[in-house]
Amino acid sequence: MSLSGALSIGSSALAASQAQLQVTGNNLANVANPNYARETATLNEGQYQEIQSGVYIGTGVDLTSIQRQVDDSLTQRVNSSTSDNQAATVAEQWSGQVQSVFNALGDNNLDTQLTTFQNDWSALANNPTDMSARNTVLQDGSNLSQTFNSVAGQLGSLQTAVGQQITDVASSANQLASQIAGLNQQIADAGGNDPGLLDQRDQAVNSLSQLINVQTVNQGNGTVNVYVGSEPLVIGNVSQGLTAQKSPTSTGASPTYQLVFTADNGNVQATGGQLGGLIASQTQINTVLQQLNTLAGGVINGVNNIYASGQGLTGYSSVTGTTQALSQTSALNSAAAGLNFPVQNGSFVVTLTNSQTGLSSSTLVPVNLTGAAGDTTLNSLTASLNAIPNLSATVTNGKLTIASTDPNDTITFSQDSSGALAALGINTFFQGSTAMDMAVNSTTAANPSLLAAAQNGNSGDNQTALAIANLNNVGQSTLGGATTQSYYSSMIGSIANTASQATNDATSTGDIVSTLTAQQQAISGVSINEETINMLQQQRAFQGAAQLVTTVNTLMTTLMAMIG
Q1: Of 189, 259, 274, 322, which residue is 20 to 30 A from 15 by alpha carbon distance?
Q2: Quick one: 268 and 317 in the same domain?
Q3: Last residue of some domain: 224, 252, 275?
Q4: CA distances (Å), 13 to each of 2, 539, 545, in order?
Q5: How many other CB atoms are there within 10 angstroms of residue 559's CB atom?
């Protein structure tokens, strides 16, 4: 062993201690940086030298590596749980807004409006000729319609807002995917072990996991491939791109959106992250809006099917249907006819009453819908009506108009077993077919005397009013056999359950994220106390190495003096 060897050992010790101190200092400098992964300097003994047979002596210390303290498996779990939590949090936010739209616990919600409307008909049945009761039915019918309109409008606004967020978040996710691809290239160019680039890439992946569910696969050279489900989003330094586009089946003013890969237009299965929550919320809002339209359609068709066979205090001189048929030559119950409500084989009665003589003439109008040739179309129905004396029927833009040709004659309808009058919007209380376009028939609203409370033509009769008053207790075919009340209750219950489940999911996934993040910080996070202890140890090591060099230097000086 020589003094030069001892000096070399001291020199290597100084260099190693300096490196350790620099790593510790870098850790402490980044203690507040949440994206930084703690680093450690790894030291190994220098290669031993054999100074005589079987006798070895050390040559100092070597700095072999500076490593990031990262558990890849734990990082994957953190990213996955983060995606789940973000999806649940977004779903909680939007499901709560859907629930608030219905104001189920308020004093003027849709349920209250339905009950008030039914009670109005019951009050009218007690005094069918009372104009005040008639006006109340019309006013509360209008209030009910406007409530449906308002709820549908609010849901449509939520759908629009969700769609805009899907577009915006998809754009952000696309930028992150491009950033990851670019960092992959830089990491590969740097040899795959640049801590700063690796930290940036891991943070970009975590940020992406907040937006969409992702998994990463290490490629062995420091780069990662990123997958959404089983489909690749980033392969090496290439991003497949991510964008939102209107769904092919989307219609109306509040379209729905789907996620696709920009490269091949393939569908992206977003189940987590903000996008997963937004897609799920979009589906929920769309489902609720469809249910609301179904409920509105059940109310409209249920009331109109009864009402169309009723009579008011006066008859019509002319009445125009509120529903447009798309085809005048197709069977009324066919899809081509485009009627919003079902028509079946049956008939209805048209009665003409002369105000001068008081005489009435009734005609049975068949509606043949047996699936055979000659089924009733709008044109053939018009022809049947035109065959009735003193009656004229015309079609304009798919809407049927029935008018008396004698100014002394008025028209009333009864005994409609086919549903054709209700489907065509003839002698109906409501017009429209959805929650958005539901309204009281404008002709009736303008003339309360036309309001049909009777069923036998007698102004004092109340059978139509009684039947509508009891409608809440009758199952509707358009509601799958449910009553309007039970259908509404089921819908509200489902909305409440969805909101409650979203809240539970947000809480539970948040707890998981907190637990896993704490585990990750225990490995990758910087502890001031721990680093301070390391720094003191490294300081002592440096001082010891410096003392060794000083001692060797003194000895070498003495030796040189003796030789000289």
Answers
A1: 189
A2: no
A3: 275
A4: 17, 12, 6
A5: 11
* Structural contact between residues 494 and 486, judged by C-beta atoms closer than 8 angstroms: no
Q: Phi first, then psi: what are they for 73, rounded to 5°?
A: -65, -45
Backbone angles phi, psi at 440, to 5 degrees: -70, 140
How far is it, in rounded angstroms, from Cα 67 to Cα 65?
6
How long is the chain?
564
DSSP code of residue 107: S
Looking at residue 340, what DSSP letter applies?
S
> pLDDT tens across 374-401, in order?
899 999 999 999 999 999 999 999 999 9
- The answer as to whether 118 is a domain residue is no
First to last CA, the chain: 22
Q: What domain count does the chain have? A: 3
Q: How far, in Å, CA of 127 to CA of 444, rounded?
A: 18
Structure tokens at 83: 């995606």
Reference 389, options 366, 408, 378, 405; nearest CA is: 405
Angle at 99 between CA 477 and CA 470, to 5 degrees: 35
Four-point Cα dihedral 72, 74, 77, 83, nearest 10: -80
- Separation of alpha carbons 168 and 411, rounded Å: 57
Give me the residue label for tokens 């779903």: 91
Q: Helix-strand-coil percent breakdown of the chain, rounded to 5?
A: 55, 15, 30
pLDDT (tens digit, 9 = 90+) per residue, 218-258?
998 889 999 999 999 999 999 999 999 988 877 766 788 99
- For 110, 224, 284, 483, 502, the CA distances from 105, given in Å and listed in that order, are 10, 51, 21, 21, 20
* Contact by Cβ (8 Å): 369, 437: no
For 547, counting Cβ atoms within 10 Å of its Cβ (0-12 exposed, 13-18 middle, 19+ buried), the class is exposed
Can you read off the two tokens belonging to residue 509? 């996934």
Prediction pTM value = 0.86
> Does residue 207 belong to any structural domain of this protein?
yes
Distance, in Å, from the CA atom of 313 to the CA atom of 311, rounded to the nearest integer, reads 7
